[in-house]
Amino acid sequence: KNVVILISGRGSNMQAIVEAKLPGVNIAAVIANRPNAAGLAWAAERGIAVAVVDHKAYGSREAFDAALADCIDGYSPDLVVLAGFMRILTPGFTSRYEGRMLNIHPSLLPAFPGLHTHERAIESGCKVAGCTVHFVTAELDHGPIVSQGVVPIEEGDTPDRLATRVLAVEHRLYPAAVGWFAEGRLTLDGLRVSLADPAP
Ligand code: GRF
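That is the input. Now the predicted structure with 5-O-phosphono-beta-D-ribofuranosylamine docked in place:
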């Protein structure tokens, strides 16, 4: 399966997916909306096709999303993976990739969509935090949930320390979900996620 990964920054989730060497997964390209996204160099060094669609070059979200979709579609993706991709996407874009676009979010959705999740979880007095892999729909961080990982919040925790522990779980959770999709086990029917048993 051709997988196109979108990043905005360091791309550690992208790296985890690449390094998992998932059977049946071809990382067709890594695309960033920022020319200086650190993950681009990492991918390019490994011979992965990289591209930049700089959001600053477009006058509207629609124009940016249209250019991004053109770039993505040039790699004939079966799956689009958002890995720390920090742009709000238009409904036209999300519907184009319905059932074949995943995101990872650093909270236990539906709690704490949006930014500053770890700070908000700690301030709310939560005893656990975590991360969620979900199919992308038009509403930010609200798509059907594929999998979640839970991390206890410790006494005196800081957002940074919690983020580090959650990130380690993200790096296991996301490659697993991409692998399920590539095996054809993970599908979306309307708003219902199905995960079939592995082939015997
Ligand atoms: C991750 O915590 C991801 O869940 C969030 O942004 C962070 C990106 O990290 N959306 P990286 O770029 O994958 O290292």
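The two ends are 20 Å apart (CA to CA).
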